[in-house]
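(Structure overview)
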Amino acid sequence: MRGPGLLPDRYGYDYGMARLEPATKQTHSPPVFECQASGAVPIPHALPTIAWRAGIDLNPIDVNAIAQTAWLETLVWPGQEKRVERLRAALAVARAEPPRIVKGTSSPIRPL
């Protein structure tokens, strides 16, 4: 996939007792992920700082290709509309700010 997993600093996080949201420059709203934390779990006070962003994928999905993103939506179980909404929001972020993705494998293992 071209980028949604590489953009954690572009998403919002709701910990119940604290909420982190990125500054948005675009017309889209970033997804907000609800996180359940209890006890002595430390809650972040800021979004992560990303120094460098790139990925490698055997079969990267083009977030601008309607058929490929529609296929991703079919992977969400029926009745989980909030997940579909978050997926669509994450795809919008990836379209607006695509990170570098290289097609390939990171595995040094070669087939026999």
